[in-house]
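Hi V.,

You were right to ask for the full record rather than a summary. Here it is.
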Amino acid sequence: MEFKHERCPQDASDETKRKLFEAALKDGMEQINTRGYHKKYAGSGKAVYRVAFAFLGRDDIEMRVEQ
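Predicted structure:
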């Protein structure tokens, strides 16, 4: 899992929030893959999920999951 927090103006449009979420989630997944956090679980016989969370303040949260 990787957690990303981005600063977002309170009056940001939905489009601005979407762009911030996409960039943060992409960055989170790239970090998981680059650093290989998931590799130590490969071959365990269990499904391994890579999960990135993006936070834009305390009320706006999204996540992306890849297997």
